[in-house]
Design a protein that fits this description.
By secondary structure, the chain is α+β, with helices and mostly antiparallel strands. The chain folds into two domains: 87 residues, Roll (PH-domain like), CATH 2.30.29; 51 residues, no CATH class. Helices cover 35% and strands 25% of the residues. The protein has a four-stranded antiparallel beta sheet, with no helix packed on it. Strands 5-6-7 form a three-stranded antiparallel beta sheet, covered by helices on one side. Helix 1 packs antiparallel against helix 2. It is elongated, with a radius of gyration of 22 Å. This is DUF2244 domain-containing protein.
Amino acid sequence: MVAVTSAWSPRNRRFPQGPTLSDGTGTRWILKRNCCLTPRQLLCMYAVLCVVSFGVGLGFWASGAHLVLPFAWIEMAGVGFALWIYARHALDRESIVIIGGRVEVEQEVAGRVSRLSFDAAHVRIDQRGGSAGLVELSAAGRRVSVGRHIRAQHRSQLAEELRAALRGSYGQG
């Protein structure tokens, strides 16, 4: 099964071609973080930054300023730690699929994937914290919150699209 993988866009208010699966059997939302660099690009940028910083530190070391190089190491260790945390979450995403009477929610956070499946007929959609809060799907005593990767003011739009898709009227009217 091949699906439209475009991220939800507030400018389009819906997916560019509607969030339907290409075989027409269901609906899918893929919500991703807005990251400008992939982890690989981030690693390359960090390597260049280290070369420049250590080059400057070595230049000062050769000039007799011996404390610059240790501080360059400390600085690059701190920057490396911050970039490592950023890279762990750069590929975070949420996927919501409504297909065949089921609602499948998959969330990836820092490389850990969790999946929940609900019977579409019993799913309830709420918003915690008002119209800017996360969208919560619940059924049979289980619940999951989605919408972390879209702006708060657009979460109510996501909730309405989910409700419409569950009613089977997505894209009509």
